[in-house]
Specification:
Length: about 400
C-alpha cells in the first residue's frame, strides 16, 4: 500500500513536538527576517556607499536564490541522514558567519560570493529544513498544525525585520547592521541544538514502513505536478513581493502604496491563523485548490482594478491564499509520500520554487518594459495560478 493511500493514523501529537515547533517559530522569524527580507533595506545603503549599481547589488541576492535551489537537492538527504538538529544548528552558525562577512565586503565580486554562500545556508535553515524537523517531531498524521504554527510566526518576519533593519542601518550603518543580524542568527544555533530532533529519530505516529524514497517518488507524475505548483507559487510570490509597490503606484495610488503593501503580510498571517484553527476540518487538497483558484481573480483585480478598495481587496485575497499555500506545500509531501525521506523529497520539490523566485521579478520587469505596464505581467500570474490548480488537482487524488 502506498503512502498516499495508507490507512489514516492516530493524530495524537507526540510528547515534545510542540517544543520543536515553538523553537522553530522563533528561529524562522530571525532567519527569514535577516537573510531574506532585510536585503531590501540593506540594498540601497550598500549601493549608496559603494557606488555599485543597484541592479548589480540586487543581482547578488538573485544569485543567492539560485544557489539555494541547487544546494537544496543535497541538503535534503543530509536532513534525513544526519537529522535536523545537526543540519540546522550548523546552518545557523554559517548564517551568522555569512552575514558577518557581508558587512565586510569591499568589492562587487565579494558581495556575490558572500551572498551565494548565504543562499546555500538558506537551504539548511528556512522552511524546507524546518518542515523536516516538524515532520520528524510530529509524524505525518499530526504535522499539519505544527507547520501552521511555524509559518504563522515566519509570516511576521517582514513585519519585524523591515523596520528593525531600517533602524539598524539608519543608526549604525549597513555594515554594523550586518554584524547585529549575524549575531541574531548565531544565537539560533543554541535552541536548535537543544530542541530539534537528532539523527534517526524514533518512530512517530504516521511514520509508516512504506514511506517512499526520493528515487521512487521522482518516477511518479504527481511529484512533478507538485514541483510545478511550487515553481508557479514561487514565481507569483516573488513578482508580487518585488513589484507590488510600483504596481500600486502605476494605478495612481502611490501615496497609499506603503500601507497597501503592508496589508500583504497581515493577510498572509491571517491565512495561516485560519488554517491553524480550521484546517483539521478541511482536506489539504481542497484547501490548496481553493487557495490557488483564489489567486487568479486576485491577480486580475491587481492587473485591471482601480481605486484603493479594489487594490486592498486584491492584496488581501492574495495574501490569505499565499499564506495558506505555504502550509499546504509543507504538509502535502508527507501526506503523499510519508515522512521517512521527507527532507530529500521536500527539498527537491522546493528547488523549482527557489529558481522561480530568482527569475520571476526579472521576467516581470521585462514584460513591463515590453508591454508598457503591469497589466500583462500580472495577468500572467493569473494564468500560472490556474495551471497550478490543475496540476494540484491531478497530483493529489481526491481521497488521498
Amino acid at each position: 500500500m502506498s503512502a498516499a493511500t495508507a490507512a489514516p493514523q492516530a493524530t495524537r501529537v507526540p510528547e515534545g513536538a510542540w517544543r520543536v515547533a515553538a523553537v522553530l517559530a522563533i528561529t524562522q522569524v530571525v532567519h527569514w527576517g535577516s537573510m531574506f527580507y532585510a536585503f531590501s533595506i540593506l540594498m540601497p545603503a550598500i549601493a549608496a556607499e559603494t557606488g555599485w549599481p543597484r541592479g548589480m547589488v540586487v543581482g547578488a541576492f538573485s544569485a543567492g536564490l539560485l544557489v539555494q535551489a541547487g544546494v537544496a537537492l543535497g541538503v535534503g538527504p543530509m536532513l534525513d541522514r544526519l537529522g535536523p538538529r545537526t543540519v540546522m544548528t550548523a546552518g545557523s552558525v554559517l548564517a551568522g558567519l555569512g552575514l558577518w562577512l557581508a558587512g565586510r565586503v569591499e568589492s562587487l565580486w565579494q558581495l556575490y560570493a558572500v551572498w551565494a554562500g548565504i543562499g546555500a545556508v538558506m537551504a539548511a535553515t528556512l522552511y524546507e529544513a524546518a518542515f523536516t524537523a516538524v515532520a520528524a517531531a510530529f509524524g505525518r498524521a499530526a504535522m499539519r498544525p505544527g507547520i501552521a504554527l511555524v509559518t504563522f510566526a515566519g509570516g511576521l518576519a517582514s513585519t519585524i525585520f523591515w523596520p528593525l533593519a531600517a533602524w539598524l542601518v539608519a543608526d549604525l550603518g549597513w555594515r554594523t547592521a550586518c554584524t547585529v543580524l549575524a549575531l541574531a542568527n548565531l544565537a539560533c544555533a543554541l535552541p536548535h541544538a537543544a530542541a530539534l530532533p537528532g539523527r534517526a529519530p524514533p518512530p512517530r505516529p504516521g511514520m509508516a514502513a512504506g514511506d517512499l524514497s526520493l528515487g521512487t517518488v521522482c518516477r511518479q507524475a504527481r511529484f512533478w505536478g507538485l514541483a510545478f505548483v511550487n515553481g508557479a507559487i514561487g514565481f507569483v510570490s516573488a513578482v508580487i513581493g518585488v513589484h507590488l509597490v510600483p504596481l500600486v503606484g502605476e494605478r495612481g495610488l502611490g501615496g497609499a502604496a506603503p500601507l497597501l503593501a503592508g496589508l500583504l503580510g497581515v493577510a498572509q498571517v491571517a491565512g495561516r491563523v485560519i488554517e491553524f484553527g480550521g484546517g483539521k476540518h478541511w482536506p489539504l487538497r481542497t484547501v490548496g485548490l481553493v487557495s490557488l483558484l483564489a489567486l487568479a481573480p486576485a491577480s486580475v483585480l491587481l492587473a485591471w482594478g482601480n481605486g484603493v478598495a479594489a487594490m486592498a481587496c486584491a492584496i488581501a485575497v492574495y495574501g490569505l491564499a499565499n499564506g495558506i499555500m505555504t502550509i499546504v506545500r509543507g504538509a502535502l509531501p508527507a501526506q503523499l509520500f510519508g515522512t521517512g525521506h521527507y527532507g530529500a523529497i521536500s527539498s527537491a520539490l522546493a528547488a523549482p520554487g527557489a529558481l522561480a523566485r530568482a527569475a520571476g521579478p526579472v521576467a516581470a520587469g521585462w514584460l513591463w518594459a515590453w508591454s508598457g505596464g503591469y497589466a500583462m505581467p500580472v495577468a500572467l500570474l493569473a494564468v500560472l495560478s490556474l495551471l497550478a490548480a490543475l496540476a494540484l488537482a491531478a497530483a493529489v487524488p481526491p481521497r488521498s
